[in-house]
Amino acid sequence: MPTSRTQASAPLARTAMAFVLAGGRGSRLMELTDRRAKPAVYFGGKSRIIDFALSNAMNSGIRRLAVATQYKAHSLIRHLQRGWNFLRPERNETFDILPASQRGDGANWYLGTADAVYQNIDIIEDLAPRHMVILAGDHIYKQDYEHMLQQHVESGADVTVGCIAVPRLDARGFGVMHVDPDGRIVAFMEKPKDPPGIPGREDLALASMGIYVFETKFLFDQLRRDAADPQSQRDFGHDIIPYLVKHGKAVAHRFERSCVRSRAESKPYWRDVGTVDAYWEANIDLTDVVPELDLYDRDWPIWTYAEVTPPAKFVHDLDGRRGEAIASLVSGGCIVSGAMARKSLMFTGVHLHSFAKIDGAVILPYVDVGRGARLTNVVVDRGVKIPEGMVVGEDPVEDAKRFRRTEKGICLITQAMLDRIAP
């Protein structure tokens, strides 16, 4: 059953620290991550992907947060500084941004996910959290980590691993585990080419969500042991978790035990938006009458940087030139000027000029769509200027020559792509 959200306090969460791993590029998002890390990619009209992991920690009662950054970190760091600067040390709250930096031993970059925590042991020790909740910063979901912390303590586990059942072939990009009837992990494989199915449900595999709970001192001991191993890849999935499956007690935590759902959400929601197709689908799904992910849930808000903007504006009311949006999300600062938006998502400051039409469009902030343009099934990167009369999404051959077109027919448009088109 989904968790109740009427809990006034979360005692284990209050003595825990959430450490978010946000250094990855996310290369399968193609040009969307040319200038930003995957956790910094926009999602849902006004948020960034990383806001979901951080909001889950806050809503769970965790008040000590840290984010390890590495690849193209400027956009992410700026967002964190603007949107997550409300935590106060005098309330025993902390928020640390931890870029890869010179630590005195010649190392500069984080060598892996485990190394990102290992290089910051001194900072974590000063805060003295009882437990560490290690989080991936690149998934969309709502979860109460207090329930996972409680299971960890009650089970006596060395590590508790968050997991979810996914289609077997989709599990090739995740850690995959076998568990016994008591939930103990008996085998763990990182990104197997042929993932094993769940017994009795061979079409599904049990995938790691990239969420781990440790007692802090025990984690530090394991990180130091791993750092002394010259064969290690310094990675939780490749090294730390398989070692503990073999030599310790690793326990699985099923997502359905701690997922957070509003009355509008019929089933647990978790998405890896790591490809252009998956990213487009997850955003466009939000335009449904009752979407699977409820962003309007006031009991479990998704915190983010709230940019100060004027209200969205719709102007002109003539046949063929009427500003309107149907089944769409329109953010602050947008102007729909005699144009039509259908089943689309417009981030902050988008301007649709007269006679333009968009359908199935994910338009990132401050895009200008020229007069008479038609865009169908597209993702448009931030700040792009779509020329007057441009048509995308109606001629697959022509689209593939000009833009990044996916197997499912979604076109990713960046300014660099437009600049390469001969006038």
UniProtKB/TrEMBL annotation:
<dbReference type="Pfam" id="PF00483">
    <property type="entry name" value="NTP_transferase"/>
</dbReference>
<feature type="binding site">
    <location>
        <position position="110"/>
    </location>
    <ligand>
        <name>alpha-D-glucose 1-phosphate</name>
    </ligand>
</feature>
<feature type="domain" description="Glucose-1-phosphate adenylyltransferase/Bifunctional protein GlmU-like C-terminal hexapeptide">
    <location>
        <begin position="310"/>
        <end position="413"/>
    </location>
</feature>
<keyword id="KW-0548">Nucleotidyltransferase</keyword>
<feature type="binding site">
    <location>
        <position position="208"/>
    </location>
    <ligand>
        <name>alpha-D-glucose 1-phosphate</name>
    </ligand>
</feature>
<keyword id="KW-0547">Nucleotide-binding</keyword>
<dbReference type="InterPro" id="IPR029044">
    <property type="entry name" value="Nucleotide-diphossugar_trans"/>
</dbReference>
<feature type="domain" description="Nucleotidyl transferase">
    <location>
        <begin position="18"/>
        <end position="287"/>
    </location>
</feature>
<dbReference type="InterPro" id="IPR011004">
    <property type="entry name" value="Trimer_LpxA-like_sf"/>
</dbReference>
<dbReference type="GO" id="GO:0005524">
    <property type="term" value="F:ATP binding"/>
</dbReference>
<keyword id="KW-0119">Carbohydrate metabolism</keyword>
<dbReference type="Pfam" id="PF24894">
    <property type="entry name" value="Hexapep_GlmU"/>
</dbReference>
<comment type="subunit">
    <text>Homotetramer.</text>
</comment>
<feature type="binding site">
    <location>
        <begin position="190"/>
        <end position="191"/>
    </location>
    <ligand>
        <name>alpha-D-glucose 1-phosphate</name>
    </ligand>
</feature>
<dbReference type="InterPro" id="IPR005835">
    <property type="entry name" value="NTP_transferase_dom"/>
</dbReference>
<dbReference type="InterPro" id="IPR005836">
    <property type="entry name" value="ADP_Glu_pyroP_CS"/>
</dbReference>
<feature type="site" description="Could play a key role in the communication between the regulatory and the substrate sites">
    <location>
        <position position="70"/>
    </location>
</feature>
<feature type="site" description="Could play a key role in the communication between the regulatory and the substrate sites">
    <location>
        <position position="109"/>
    </location>
</feature>
<keyword id="KW-0321">Glycogen metabolism</keyword>
<comment type="function">
    <text>Involved in the biosynthesis of ADP-glucose, a building block required for the elongation reactions to produce glycogen. Catalyzes the reaction between ATP and alpha-D-glucose 1-phosphate (G1P) to produce pyrophosphate and ADP-Glc.</text>
</comment>
<dbReference type="InterPro" id="IPR023049">
    <property type="entry name" value="GlgC_bac"/>
</dbReference>
<comment type="pathway">
    <text>Glycan biosynthesis; glycogen biosynthesis.</text>
</comment>
<dbReference type="GO" id="GO:0005978">
    <property type="term" value="P:glycogen biosynthetic process"/>
</dbReference>
<protein>
    <recommendedName>
        <fullName>Glucose-1-phosphate adenylyltransferase</fullName>
        <ecNumber>2.7.7.27</ecNumber>
    </recommendedName>
</protein>
<keyword id="KW-0808">Transferase</keyword>
<comment type="similarity">
    <text>Belongs to the bacterial/plant glucose-1-phosphate adenylyltransferase family.</text>
</comment>
<dbReference type="InterPro" id="IPR011831">
    <property type="entry name" value="ADP-Glc_PPase"/>
</dbReference>
<dbReference type="GO" id="GO:0008878">
    <property type="term" value="F:glucose-1-phosphate adenylyltransferase activity"/>
</dbReference>
<feature type="binding site">
    <location>
        <position position="175"/>
    </location>
    <ligand>
        <name>alpha-D-glucose 1-phosphate</name>
    </ligand>
</feature>
<keyword id="KW-0320">Glycogen biosynthesis</keyword>
<dbReference type="InterPro" id="IPR056818">
    <property type="entry name" value="GlmU/GlgC-like_hexapep"/>
</dbReference>
<keyword id="KW-0067">ATP-binding</keyword>
